[in-house]
Amino acid sequence: MILPAQLREHTAGVGTLELGSASSLRDALQALKQQHPFVHLRILTETGHLRPHVNLFVDGEDIRFGNGLDTPLLPGSEILVIPAVSGG
After folding, report:
1. Is residue 48 a contact partner of residue 25, using CB atoms and an 8 Å limit?
2. Which of 70, 73, 77, 87 is deepest in the core (most CB within 10 A)?
3. Containing H/E element for 41?
4. Phi and psi torsions of 48, nearest 5°
5. What is the pLDDT of residues 32-71, one digit of tens each?
6. Dihedral sign for Cα atoms in the order 71, 30, 39, 51
7. Cα-flanking dihedrals φ and ψ of residue 16, to 5°?
8. Across the chain, what does the average pLDDT equal?
9. Residue 70 phi/psi, 5° resolution?
10. What pLDDT, on the 0 to 100 scale, is given for residue 65?
11. DSSP 3-state assignment of 52?
12. Average pLDDT, stretch 20-24?
């Protein structure tokens, strides 16, 4: 998992996390919860839904246009966390 700079302060500056051999994005996020619970709460709500200001990509594909949190992961899949940008 590749984290944006805003979340790296909660991982001692580490920007890339290894989350084990999860078979789905949901499983990978559960592993994240065990390793870095505060980062997990910045990505998912307390009820387990993706926060509206966070975008997740698996292997370059936005999960919102596919299987969402049930997106399957292959060995070596890359999860990218990108904060939404807004303004006017």
Report:
1. no
2. 73
3. helix 37-43
4. 90, 15
5. 999 999 999 999 999 999 999 999 999 999 999 999 999 9
6. positive
7. -125, 125
8. 94
9. -90, 15
10. 94
11. coil
12. 93
Q: What is the pTM of this model?
A: 0.90
> At residue 47, what is the residue type?
T
CA–CA gap between residue 47 and residue 49 (Å, rounded):
6
- Strands of the 79-83 sheet, one edge to the other: 61-62, 54-58, 79-83
Give pLDDT, residue 84.
83
CB 58 within 8 A of CB 81: no
Q: Are 58 and 73 in contact (CB under 8 A)?
A: yes
Q: Which amino acid is at 58?
A: V
Contact residues for 13 (Cβ-Cβ < 8 A; gap 6+): none
Tracing tokens 């290894």 back to the chain, one arrives at 18
